[in-house]
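Lab manual, section 2.4: Encoding a predicted structure.

Procedure: take the sequence of the chain (190 residues), apply the prediction step described in section 2.3, and record the output as structure tokens. A sample record is shown.
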Amino acid sequence: MSRRKPYLVGHQEFAALYRVDPKQVAQWLSPSRGAVLDPSTAVVVSGVRYWPLGFAAGWGATTARFRQVDLDVKARIIAEQGEGWEPHLAAELPPIVGQHEIIQIFGLPAQGTLATTIASGRFPAHDWLLSGSMLWMLETVLDAAPRLRERARSLPWEVDEAVVTALREGTYDGPGSRVLTRGRHARKGL
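Recorded output:
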């Protein structure tokens, strides 16, 4: 089944939209520098922030110091992500998961188990590759569960419905739900 996915950006893509180094995005988020980029505008997936493309592309026009978005970069991001739609708010996004959340969904014993399954081609293709990280819509992962169970040799690939419910309701607070900053956990959403 084909789903139109929302266009997203990570730190690297956000920086490319404004022709700055990705470290600049972290500075824009920093409270000590005036937090010109509100952290609550992003979703946190596997410990990393991601923004709706519509928000990211419009952000430069909302700052005290106007920043011109690079429309060629925006077009490239859209082309790379395929057919989709352009959300403006994090609340518009469907549940999105990365490897941390997938490990919890299936109760996997280690990240290496998932990495091996992905590398072997038995796991569904990622919906996004952003800032070097693979992301999936939750439904992509859940749709693959029966096939994963059929092909499994030793793992049950059973879905933890409590984790799925929390992801759907936006209340998930397990591994990956907080931004990791220099090896420390930051408060969720910061």
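Check your result against the sample. The CA atoms of residues 98 and 135 lie 5 Å apart.
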